[in-house]
Design goal:
76% helix
């Protein structure tokens, strides 16, 4: 039985809406503070007295670290399932927030807030996106738009909440409280019921059944007969288990185990790299990189830019970060609904939003009032909703079966862009004492990425050659399944 045959059809509703609601809440409390990191950025500048480029590394890493390890996050979700990964990510995010409250300097903050929280958020995002795509097919765009709106709602709520918490409890107390709130990810992830057993579960069950079958075979067959090496039930994990049992300290056993592991890892890497042979997917990686480089810095620096322009006096208390987050929520939901329209090409729609974002960033240096910055913040927030199109476009390009692997590769490119964007803009400011040049370059980079994706998608695609047959030592996912397992969710 192939993995595709073992995967049950998407119910397009039912418990899937519970999964969407839990994913929404999880992204709200997990991504609320990272999405409104622009509020904490001026406080860190005052508290630690470091340069803008150094301090901006905290915001860039919290947005980019989880995406940089996107392939690892995808592998965790594929092998262990979305539910355990979601629970672990909740503990990781909460621990990173609380640890940041005791940061003595920016370097420690880069680790605790940037890396720990960032990787935890990446695990959570991958888990919620993957489980939602498995539950929905015809309504996938709407479901993805609804759950990813949680990041924008969280950015809006936390943008105002963190200001009040800092006034009442100080910066350290604020981080401790949002860390406690992040623990709500754990019960929400517990409700993400999978549709099929994870690969790790299938491997363990296959090994147990193989062990029982081997014992039964030894009882029924003569002693001089051995099981055939070409038996399809003999998986890589079973062979490794048998080798370990024969002699843990044997040199030959160690070499055999290393060969098995090396072959398994090379097959996994080859499968992921083969996806990049698709021209549209490769162009999508380049476009997402350029979008991440140019679109994220305004979320970090707009408040500081307004203060440097001296246009913040006598304006409404609502922050630019909150406006950006509100518009982002509307954009994610609206663009998700538009992607479900039959005649709308999701690739062209994504390319259009990236190009429009580049144009908006090019207009930032031309502003002269806080109202103009507010308008551009709303526009950039709405166009930032194109993140909800990314998994939808991936599923259209490579199919839902390869969604987790392709999503991990794409998130790696996005993570590199998020990690490079804010420090680069901060370095330009430290050198030129102005944000203008940095924003011009960011906007131009996004428009170039949009053009690349549009040109790659406008020409007809060539079909990729079928993958070579798997070797005999390849694990057979879902080999030991029953009709009940394939038809009902696993609790």
């Amino acid at each position: 039985m192939s993995p595709l045959a073992a995967r049950p059809p998407a119910p397009d509703g039912g418990w899937g809406w519970v999964v969407v609601a839990c994913s929404f809440v999880s992204l709200l409390v997990g991504y609320g503070s990272p999405q409104s990191v622009g509020v904490l950025y001026p406080e860190w500048l005052l508290a630690f007295g470091e340069g803008k480029a150094m301090t901006a590394c905290v915001g860039s890493l919290v947005g980019g670290a989880g995406l940089l390890v996107g392939p690892i996050c995808s592998a965790c979700v594929v092998n262990f399932g979305a539910r355990p990964v979601g629970v672990f990510s909740g503990v990781m995010i909460a621990g990173g927030f609380m640890l940041s409250a005791f940061a003595p300097n920016v370097a420690f903050l880069i680790f605790s807030y940037g890396i720990v929280v960032g990787v935890g958020a990446g695990l959570l995002y991958t888990a919620t996106i993957t489980i939602t795509c498995l539950y929905f097919d015809k309504k996938r765009g709407l479901a993805l738009g609804m759950l990813t709106t949680g990041t924008s709602v969280g950015g809006f709520v936390y943008g105002t909440l963190q200001i009040k918490l800092i006034e009442l409890f100080g910066l350290d107390g604020c981080l401790l409280i949002i860390g406690a709130l992040a623990l709500n990810v754990v019960p929400c992830a517990g409700l993400m019921r999978p549709l099929a057993p994870s690969r790790y579960y299938l491997r363990q069950r296959s090994a147990i059944l193989e062990q029982a079958a081997e014992e039964q075979r030894l009882q029924d067959e003569p002693a001089n007969q051995k099981p055939s090496a070409k038996d399809p039930i003999v998986t890589v994990e079973t062979k490794e288990l048998l080798v370990r049992r024969r002699s843990l300290f044997s040199c030959s056993a160690l070499i055999t185990m290393m060969k098995i592991k090396t072959r398994l890892y090379s097959q996994c890497l080859s499968s992921m790299l083969s996806l990049l042979q698709d021209r549209v997917l490769m162009a999508l990686c380049v476009t997402l990189f350029s979008f991440s480089v140019g679109n994220f810095p305004p979320q970090v620096f707009l408040e500081d830019l307004a203060q440097s322009y001296g246009v913040t006096e006598g304006v409404a208390s609502i922050s630019l970060v909150s406006l950006n987050s509100i518009a982002g929520g509307v954009g994610k939901l609206g663009l998700g609904v538009m992607a479900d329209v039959p005649r709308v090409n999701s690739v062209f729609l994504y390319a259009l939003t990236v190009g429009a974002s580049g144009l908006a960033v090019l207009l930032i240096p031309l502003t002269s009032s806080y109202l103009e910055l507010q308008v551009l913040s709303v526009v950039l927030g709405f166009l930032n909703g194109s993140w909800t199109l990314v998994p939808y476009v991936i599923s259209q390009v490579v199919g839902v079966e390869k969604l987790a692997e392709a999503h991990g590769i794409l998130m790696f490119f996005g993570g590199v862009g998020l990690a490079l964007g804010p420090p680069a803009v901060g370095s330009f400011y430290d050198f030129c004492q102005s944000y203008d040049v940095a924003f011009y370059l960011s906007g131009g980079c996004m428009m170039a990425g949009s053009l690349i994706l549009f040109l790659s998608a406008i020409f007809p695609r060539t079909e990729n050659p079928p993958p070579p047959p798997l070797p005999e030592t390849e694990p057979i996912s879902g080999m030991v399944t029953t009709a009940t397992d394939a038809a009902s969710p696993v609790i």
